[in-house]
Amino acid sequence: MGVLMKAIPQHDRPRERLLTQGAAALSDRELLALVLRSGTRATSAVDLASALLGEHGGLKDLACAAPEEIVTAAGVGPAKAAGVVAAFELGRRATMQPKPVTLRGPEDVARIGSQELAGLRRERVLVLVCDSANRLRRTVAVSEGSIDRSLAPVREILNAVLRHDGRAFALVHNHPSGDPEPSDADYRATSQLRGAAQVVGLRFLGHVVVAAESWQPVTM
C-alpha cells in the first residue's frame, strides 16, 4: 500500500514543492497527481498517478489516450479522466507555432496538421481558418471519429469558418492507421466542401491527410 498524502509532511507534498521549487522539480507522477487532485481512501494521488502511467506505458502514451480508456483505471472517474485529457490538450496547444503563418500550399497545411494531430489514436478533423490573404487566424477541431473513421460535416465546417470571420480555409485530418492514402469518403467530403464554399463565398484552399511522418493532399 502506498503512502497517503496526509502522511507526507506538508512541505514535501507535490503542490507545496511546485510552489516553492517550481514545476521542473516535480516528477511526471507528481505533476499528474496535481492534475488528478485526489486519490482514493486507500491510495494517494501520487500512487494513483503512478499506476495510471504504468497502465499506459508512460507519459507519451497516456497523452494519446482517450477519456474512455483513462476512466477504466481503478480510482479514476470521468472527472479525473477529463482533467487529464484537458491538461494534455492544453500542452499540445501551447506548442503551436506562435508566429503568423500563411498557407501557400498543401505543405503548410500538412505541417500544421502534423503538429496538432501527432500521436492521436482517433481521427480528428481540423479546419484552418484564414483571412483574405490566406494568413492562418485560428485552428478549429470540428469532429472526432472512432478509432478508424471520422466524419467531416460540411455545414459545421463552413459555420466554423464564418463564425471566426474567415475568408478562406483548409481542411486537415489524420489517419491513425499510418497510411495517408485518402479514402473514398475523403474525396467525397472534399468535393462537397469545394462546392459549398463557392456558394457561401469562401475560398477552399485544400484538404490534406496526415499520418505518422507522411501526408498526402486530397486532390480531385
Describe this structure in words.
With 220 residues, the protein is of the alpha+beta class. It has 2 domains: 5-94, DNA polymerase, domain 1, CATH 1.10.150; 106-217, Cytidine Deaminase, domain 2 (3-Layer(aba) Sandwich). It contains 9 helices and 5 strands, in the order H-H-H-H-H-H-H-E-E-H-E-H-E-E. The protein has a 5-stranded mixed β-sheet with strand order 2-1-3-4-5, with helices on both faces. Helix 2 packs across helix 3. The chain is elongated. The termini are far apart. The mean pLDDT is 87.
Topology at a glance:
Elements: H1 14-21, H2 28-36, H3 45-55, H4 59-62, H5 67-70, H6 78-94, H7 106-117, E1 124-130, E2 136-144, H8 154-163, E3 168-174, H9 184-200, E4 203-211, E5 214-217
Parallel strand pairs: 3-4
Antiparallel strand pairs: 1-2, 1-3, 4-5
Helix pairs in contact: 2-3
